[in-house]
Every structure is written in structure tokens, then in C-alpha cells.
Amino acid sequence: MAVIASLIFAFLALALQATLVQHIAIAGVRPDLAIVATVFLGFARGAFGGTLAGFAIGLAQDLTNPAFLGLNALTKSLLGHVAGAMRSNLNTGSLPMHAAVLFVAVLAHDVVYLTIFTHLALSDLLLRFATQSLPTALYTALVGMWAFPALGVFAGRGGRALGRTSLARR
Amino acid sequence: MFRSLFGRHRDRTALAVTVLVSGAMLALDDGTQDGVARALGATLYAPLQTVVQSGEEMLLLRRENRQLRRVVATLNLERMRLLPLRDENAQMRRVAGFAHERFPLLLPCEVVGRATDPKQDMLQLARGARDSVRADMAVTAYAGLVGRVRQVTENRALVETLASPGLAVSCRDQRSGVIGILRWLRGNTFGLDRVDAVEDVMVGDPLVTSGMGGMYPRGVPVGVVTRVSNSLDGLFKTIEVRTYVELGGVQDVFVVRRMVPWDDDVLYGPEDRTLLDPVTDVRADAARAQPGRPAAAGEPGPRGD
Q: Is the dihedral of CA B120, B121, B127, B133 positive or negative?
């Protein structure tokens, strides 16, 4: 059940990213719901589930733009793994904490992504990081933190207690 | 051993595998990446596409079903009012010795393709000889005439639409009765040829098929007159017509299989009859019970036609 819920959540995030998110862009900056879904599923399903979820979400994104096939799959696998591995430390159940986690997650993801994407051209990397990654991280944190209260629904066997605790604390 | 290793380091193994696979995909050259993405996309997205497509189709069908129910109900009411007139008309035709009115028996077909030949505007239908479709059968849509069947295979039929330059249809001005030949000019605009300058044709006049030539049944709506002027030599009218059917976007059509007597028993099967107003049945039963009833539309007249 949790696996199906996770799949539906990932699919919904990607569908929203492709449709609705285009309409809420502010000066071209859009929240990255794929990252929200990866971190969320990492928290809900642990490192193993987070890695697989990140890979699947990233691959789904890569298939729509095969110029850098595997780049999103790689970065999101790493992100899902880290989020899952650190969930017990980071998931305090508070909204500001979730926002902070998402903010850092987008920045960390983009560092790896841009490093490969720009072939380590530092000026390009820094420019993109400052003009795209930072605003996106902020917007993603503000939008994405509201998804976390539903964490208990998506938590599998390992993460169920975590989800409940998270909700109970709230 | 592998299982125990995987069990102990499940998280790291998953990460290593996904990183390796991602790295391998990244290392591919552009052309191969494209091919892999296409193949993976077709495989992975196919079930999703099927689900999304089925959902969309279901929503569309529900909406269409609701719409059709409303139309059927309205048409049924309209029909109830017209049936006595039909019977009266049939009786008068019988007395005057005219042939009986006949009605087209329709076969619904889905348009599955469109030919790209610029010389001929052709539609491909998902029905063929197996469904009793034959060449030269007339094809209509909900709004009016579409064209005629040109070629038939076992399960497909090619329809030459009115927008084909070679196709000409004899049409009648429904208001004045003037007859002309409809030919395609451009886009959805057609010309009505061979109409004398003195004939009465006005903008807004509806056109229907005249039935002459025998290929198209009489009275099928075709379009409306949009422009009338006199030709340069002053002998004929130059008439422009816009068809009711948007030929570029037509999706569902009906092949006129044959003309049958205008009688409910012939036109409607038992399942169709359940959609018709039960009053029709009561009316039919009453007519059958009455010995001196007027002859039904399908019964032979004095000339046996």
C-alpha cells in the first residue's frame, strides 16, 4: 500500500511539475517538486527506498530530455539516499525544519547537477547557482514543506513509526 | 553470499547500482542516449500512457454519452410530433401513386487516418468489406454529408471527402428547390456550379443532396450558401457554400449502407427500440389492431414499388 502511495505521490509530483508549476513561476523561478518528492520519499521509506525513488523520479525526468540521460537519475538517487539515511536526525516534524531541509536539498542537488552539466566550468556553475539554484531552493522550500505533514501515509514498515511520531509531534 | 551481502548493505548496494547505471547512461554518446531514452520511454511510459489515455477516453465517452442521451431524448420528442405527418405523407403518396419515401440505413464508423495526398482528401475508416461497406456508398457525419467510399479492403475503407477536387455532388437549395453541382474550391469553401443567373439562390439558403445520380440519398444536409454573385459573362451565378461538417476534424462518420423503407421495424433493431419512446410501440400496436389503418411507409403501394 505504501509503495503504491509512493508511486502515486512521485507521479503526481512529476505531473504537477510538468503542468501546474509552469503557472506559478515567479520571474522564471519554479519550485522543484521532483526534489520535494525525492526528499519526502527518502524520509518516508528510508535510504533504500529513497535511493530507488530518487532514481525512478530522476530517470522519468531524464526520459523527457535525453540530452543528459542519467544526470537526474544520478543526482536524485544520491539525494534520496542521503535524505533516507539522515531522516531520523532531520525529521523533527516542524515546518521550518522541513523547509530548511528542502532548501539545503535543492542546493546540494544542484551542486552535483551543475558540476556535471557545466563540465566544471566554474564561472558558469557559479552564475547558474546564484541565479537559478538559490531562488529555486527558496521557492521549493516554501512550497514543499506543506507536503510533509502527510508523511505517515507514505511511510512503509520501517518508516511508519517515524511518520506517526512526526504527525503526533505536530 | 550475494543475498547476505545485499541484506547487510542493502542501502549502499542500491546506491551503488543506481549510481553505476546512471553513470553508464551519462557516458553514452548523444545518439545512443537518444535511442535508449526512446526505448525506455516507450517501455516505461506505455502502461502510464494506456492508463491516462483510457481515463481520458472514459471521461470523453461519459460526456459524449450524456450529450447523446439529451439529443436522443429531444429527437425522440421531435420524432413523436413528426410521425403522424410521415404517415399522412405516406398515405398521400400512395394515393397519388408515388414511390415510397426511403430512409438511409447507417453504419457508424471511426475515422482512423487521413491520407496526405494533396490531390485527394481521403479519410480512412475502421470498417471494411467485412462490415458490408462497399465502394460508392455515401458517407455522412452528424452534421451532414462527408463524401463517398472510394476503396474498400477487408477491414478498412477509404473515403473521398467533399474536399477532393474531383468530387462533385448534386445539391438542391432547400428553400427554392434550385439544383446545382457542388465542388470544392479551398479550405471549407465550396462552389455551387451550373446555376443560371436568373435562379433564386440567396445567402443563408440551406443546401441538401438532390438525390440525383443515385449515389447520395436525397435530403442529406450539405451546407449553407455564404456568397452569391453573377459570373463575368452574366449567364451563371457564382455561389459559395460552407459545408456543415468541418471536414478537417471529423472523427465519427456514418456509411449509408442502403436505403430502406421508412419504417421503424426496418430502421431499428430490438435494442434500439428500448431507447425510443414507448409511446411508439403503443401507437404501432394500436395501428396494427385497427383494420382500416393507413398503410405503413414500408408497405407496397399500388405500383408495387
A: negative
pLDDT in tens, B121-171: 889 999 999 999 999 999 999 899 999 999 999 989 999 999 988 889 999
B231 close to B197: Cβ distance less than 8 angstroms: yes
Domain interval for residue A34: 2-164
Q: Do A77 and B18 touch (CB under 8 A)?
A: yes
Q: B48 CB near a chain A CB, below 8 Å? A: yes
> Is residue A10 included in any domain, yes or no?
yes
* Coil/strand/helix, residue A70: coil
Query: B122: closest CA among B105, B155, B147?
Result: B147
User: Does a structural domain hold residue A47?
Assistant: yes
Contact residues on chain A for B8, CB-CB shorter than 8 A: none
CATH, residue A135: 1.10.1760
A169 inside domain? no
Cα separation values, B118 from B91, B114, B250, Å:
49, 11, 18
User: Which phi and psi angles does B275 have, rounded to 5°?
Assistant: -80, -25
Contact B22 A63 (CB under 8 A): no
A55 vs B48: CB contact, 8 Å cut-off? Answer: no
Q: What are phi and psi of A131, to 5 degrees?
A: -90, -25
- Give the separation between CA A12 and CA B216, rounded to whole angstroms: 52
Quote the CA–CA distance of A98 and A90 in Å, as a whole number: 8
Residue of A nearest to B37 (CA): A63
CA distance readout (Å), A43 to A6, A11, A107, A158: 11, 17, 18, 10
Across the interface, do B24 and A70 touch by the CB < 8 Å criterion?
yes
Q: What is the DSSP letter of B295?
A: P
- State the smallest CA–CA distance between residue B58 and chain A in angstroms: 20
State the pLDDT at residue B291.
53
pTM assigned to the model: 0.52
Does the CB of A38 have a partner CB in chain B at under 8 Å?
A: no
In chain B, what are the domain boundaries? 1-101, 102-261
Domain B102-261 has CATH 2.40.10.340: yes
Cell (9 digits) for B195: 446555376
Q: Does B30 touch chain A (CB under 8 A)?
A: yes
State ipTM.
Answer: 0.81
Count of domains forming chain A: 1
Residue with grid cell 531541509, as numbered in its chain: A101
- Look at A73 and B18 and tell me if their CB atoms are within 8 Å: yes
